[in-house]
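hi! just following up on the protien thing from before. the input was this:
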Amino acid sequence: MFVLQKDSKQYRHSQSLLKGFSLFEVVLATVILATSLAAIGTLMEVSRISVARSTFEIDALIRCESIIDEITLDAQPVSGSSEMPFEDDPSWTYSITVEQTEIETLQQISVQVTHYGEQKKRNADVKLVRLIYTPVSTDQETE
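and the predicted 3d structure came back as:
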């Protein structure tokens, strides 16, 4: 068994190895950790905002498609309207624009759905455009 004496160089050398971290190393590690946590916090906030925005946009797209489907099925008369609120949630509004194309039996229908959040801030704004066939009425055919 090897026993060190307090006077020997080996003992003093091993004592210097057991001292631990210096204050500079601890402060440096703390700064690196704090910077990393701040960066991760910022990224989490950005991702939260992106998720909320994409959720609103998906809801707006679904609402746009439902309005166009109603128009296509003739469940709703085709006429232009502006900033009409939805019945289930008045923070959602829609606008319908009807334009005649060069072809007499085709109409271009544009539906824009917007969600207004706090302080009239737009959270989502989606616009869909479809061409819809409108047959010529029988009264016009006989003339």
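The radius of gyration is 34 Å.
Residues 9-142 form a domain with the N-terminal domain of TfIIb fold (CATH 2.20.25.110).
cheers
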